[in-house]
Amino acid sequence: MMDLDLTGRRAIVTGASLGIGAAVVEMLADHGASVAFCARNPDGVELLSNYAPASGEGSVNGYVADMADGESVSSFLHSVDADDRPADILINNVGASPSRNFLYMTDEDWEQLHQLNLLSAVRCTRHCLPHMRQQKWGRVIMVASGAAMYPGAALIDYAATKAAMVATGKALAGKYGADNVLTNSVLPGLIHTAMWERAAGEVAEASGTTPEAIIERNGQSVPVGRYGTSEEVASVITFLCSNAASYVNGATITVDGGQGGHV
Q1: Annotated catalytic sites, by residue?
Q2: What does 65-83 look like in DSSP terms, one character per residue?
Q3: Quick check: 166 and 187 in contact, CB under 8 A?
């Protein structure tokens, strides 16, 4: 039987009030983990904190934090440690994907997105690694994007940060695998989240159609014929966090319905 039980494990999920992050929080808790998560929106944090896991062993606790700010990241992580104990599992999920023109982007634009998408993952991983190494068990998941492999000009800075996350994860896997700290990257493709709804709205406005038409058209470009769901991504992440994935380390796993063209 596949062992997906996470009872007794402490998990951190960043940027988790909506979409993939929220689905991961719920699924990890359903499998028995004690989950701490953060987001900037107090209402979203409060709502997800009220989630009642299917497993009586799991729990969910939310914190308001701005992961683009180093001091806020540090405060969040130390609060999690003080309220329970250090994390065994870290899901670096937080991220933003503004659509903008390369020629009009400032250095500040680039720096701000790297602070949120990349340096938040660096800071959280650096904080959590010592405990994981000491106990000889840990899981670090970089939630990147298909854009890391297939970058587009409209999301050039987003793609750069996500590619850097994958590279960082691969390096950490080689360094700390001997301590049984396994690091893997998950690259979602077209997933029906608020981010993609916003993008569809922008495209629809520019092309004189509707967001629903854009989503339907985009879905047809995927071999399975549709957008994926946050829960489908969360299922892969939950597997990677479990003992069932004890020999999976340094992997880059696409969850894109077959859309990616690489071998």
Answers
A1: 158
A2: --TTSHHHHHHHHHHHHHH
A3: yes
Report the amino acid identity of residue 97: S
Per-residue pLDDT tens over the stretch 210-262:
888 888 888 899 999 999 999 999 999 999 999 999 999 999 999 999 999 88
Q: Look up the CATH number of domain 10-190+229-255.
A: 3.40.50.720
Strand order across the 10-13 sheet: 59-64, 34-39, 10-13, 89-92, 138-143, 181-188, 252-255
Domain residue extents for the chain: 10-190+229-255, 192-227
Quick one: tokens of 152?
A: 């587009």
Closest CA to 159 of 144, 174, 140: 144
Confirm if 30 and 41 have CB atoms less than 8 A apart: no
Q: What span, in angstroms and rounded, lies between the C-alpha atoms of 239 and 5?
A: 10
Q: What does the chain come to in residues?
A: 263
Q: In terms of C-beta density within 10 A (0-12 exposed, 13-18 middle, 19 or more buried), how is residue 167 classed?
A: middle
Determine the 3-state secondary structure of 10 from DSSP: strand
Cα–Cα dist 23/168, whole Å = 24
d(CA 46, CA 64): 9
Query: Closest Cα partner for 227 from 253, 185, 262, 188?
Result: 188
CB 248 within 8 A of CB 184: yes
Whole-angstrom Cα distance, residue 33 to residue 12? Answer: 10
pLDDT in tens, 160-186: 999 999 999 999 999 999 999 999 999
Location of structure tokens 């004890």:
246
d(CA 149, CA 124): 24
